[in-house]
């Protein structure tokens, strides 16, 4: 793993425009997921089932909007950036493996949360409603750490590994800031 850390540098790497765009996309995603996390924490403080369901419906609507922003972002990474970097470092171990695994974890928890909140009119216990809320919280924590790893390790590593030609191809697929 130390060779990957060396490739990442000390975090002071200036990123090319498409990598900077991916990094800058994290800001609105973070803001949205932080707001949703505050709502999820407030749900866990409730003790009245009707109020919990009401807030869960708000959280569900927010998660739907969040996923609509997250999916195109993660597709740029999974479909373009990760394969380019994997050409240099492989994808079965190391940063690309971890990034893809974390994408799967976060998306899986968000999907299960949305499935669990489809029909809140059913008779669910407070405990079951809290378990559904916890699915969002898990996705939130995975994504918090994931964004940090991308910003501090993956993006600087990609900046150092990718050729100018590859960065131009990346720009065609991702765009710039």
From TrEMBL:
Output the Gene3D superfamilies linked to this UniProt entry. nmb1532 protein domain like
InterPro entries in the cross-refs: Hemerythrin-like
Hemerythrin-like domain residues are 18-158
> Can you name this protein?
Hemerythrin domain-containing protein
Q: What is the lineage of its organism?
A: Bacteria, Bacillati, Bacillota, Bacilli, Bacillales
